[in-house]
């Protein structure tokens, strides 16, 4: 039976240095598990000053590789500024930004509204419209967030977090009606 390969000395030194940096309990005390969304679920909306809740969704940047020139040897320049040897370039794929990173915020149901019963209603409403084909579980699982994203993307909001506008469109949250002007007496 052969022995497993030994890790490089540099890796062992780095792991030893990390272990000596501090008690792992200090990390878990600074970030509460309750503050993080469950694994695979989008973050919940946060309360704002006006009593509503807003969700925040980060849209990652999108890159593509295009052929470009990469400098492989730097130019050699004399003290008087004359070029002794020009730089040398080679063709290679280089990243190019197709879409910048962005962040969107929108009004969303508050965390206390996102009960299992409410989420089950979201799942049934999306299923009735042909967006959700999974089991009604009352949890924001991957099929539910994918259905929310598909439904909202068709309406201009590219997010897997449920917006208040979507909840209203699905008939799950009351729609605020404009106030009626007082009736005027007619003679």
Automatic annotation (TrEMBL):
InterPro entries xrefs: Peptidoglycan-bd-like, PGBD-like_sf, PGBDSf
Gene3D superfamilies, sorted: PGBD-like superfamily/PGBD
Signal peptide: 1-19
Keywords noted in UniProt: Signal
Pfam families: PG_binding_1
Keyword Signal: yes
Region (Disordered): 26-50
All residue ranges annotated as the Peptidoglycan binding-like domain in the record: 119-158
Protein name: Putative peptidoglycan binding domain-containing protein
Provenance organism: Antarctobacter heliothermus
Source organism phylogeny: Bacteria, Pseudomonadati, Pseudomonadota, Alphaproteobacteria, Rhodobacterales
């Amino acid at each position: 039976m052969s022995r497993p390969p030994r890790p490089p000395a540099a890796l062992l030194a780095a792991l030893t240095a990390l272990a000596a940096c501090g008690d792992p309990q200090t990390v878990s005390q600074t970030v509460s598990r309750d503050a993080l969304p469950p694994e695979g679920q989008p973050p919940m909306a946060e309360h704002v000053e006006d009593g509503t809740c807003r969700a925040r969704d980060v849209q990652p940047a999108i890159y593509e590789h295009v052929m470009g020139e990469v400098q492989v040897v730097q130019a050699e320049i004399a003290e008087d500024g004359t070029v002794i040897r020009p730089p040398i370039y080679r063709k290679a794929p280089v990243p190019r930004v197709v879409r910048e990173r962005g962040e969107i915020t929108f009004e969303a149901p508050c965390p206390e509204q996102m009960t299992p019963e409410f989420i089950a209603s979201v799942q049934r409403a999306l299923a009735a419209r042909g967006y959700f084909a999974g089991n009604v579980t009352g949890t924001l699982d991957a099929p539910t967030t994918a259905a929310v994203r598909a439904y909202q993307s068709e309406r201009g909001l590219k997010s897997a977090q449920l917006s208040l506008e979507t909840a209203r469109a699905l008939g799950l949250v009351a729609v605020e009606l404009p106030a009626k002007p007082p009736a005027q007496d007619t003679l």
